[in-house]
Design brief:
The protein has 158 residues and is α+β, with helices and mostly antiparallel strands. The chain is built from four helices and eight strands. The strands form two sheets. It has a six-stranded antiparallel β-sheet. Strands 3-4 form a two-stranded antiparallel sheet. β3 and β4 form a beta hairpin. It is globular, with a radius of gyration of 15 Å. The protein starts with a helix and ends with a helix. One of its GO terms (molecular function) is 1,4-dihydroxy-2-naphthoyl-CoA thioesterase activity.
Length: 158
């Protein structure tokens, strides 16, 4: 089956973010309804060594990335959209030895701001680890986040 252009763009975007590479994040799904990323469980993301629970910072990184990437699903062309505000409500700790999935969906797009919501979950999307809402500023198509970043988005996967 051929990969969709949106999925390919999402994978290029994720591959351009070094911290996401270090955490071994991957794109699970991307379409007009949003994006889902996967953060594999590893010793690097443990916040409580006694229980193996996942550090909140790893969940925050996953969700800020997922929400930021959800802009790809609603904009006609790539725009750099930095985080203006991010609220994360943690429901319960992430379980040891289980990957974490982050799903994000845009629910309103204006000329200047994109409004996005999502959740982080493990085994069951109906039992989220965290609920997230964020706002992202639209800077326009002319801003590319640096030449190297723009080339990685436009070029083939590395």
């Amino acid at each position: 089956m051929q990969q969709s252009p949106l999925m390919a763009q999402a994978e290029r975007f994720l591959s351009a973010l070094r911290h996401c590479q270090v955490l071994q994040m991957r794109v699970e799904h991307a379409d007009a309804d949003g994006v889902t990323l996967c953060l594999p469980y590893s010793a690097q993301i443990v916040g409580n060594p006694a229980s193996g629970a996942i550090h909140g910072g790893a969940i925050t990184t996953l969700m800020d990335t997922a929400l930021g990437m959800a802009t790809l699903c609603v904009l006609p062309a790539f725009e750099v959209c930095p985080t203006l505000d991010l609220r994360i409500d943690y429901m319960h700790p992430g379980l040891a030895d289980q990957p974490v999935y982050g799903h994000a969906q845009c629910y309103r797009v204006t000329r200047d701001v994109i409004f996005i919501r999502g959740s982080a979950y493990q085994l069951d999307p109906g039992q989220p680890i965290a609920q997230v809402v964020g706002t992202y500023m639209r800077l326009g198509k002319a801003i590319k986040g640096g030449l190297a970043f723009a080339k990685r988005l436009d070029g083939p996967l590395q």
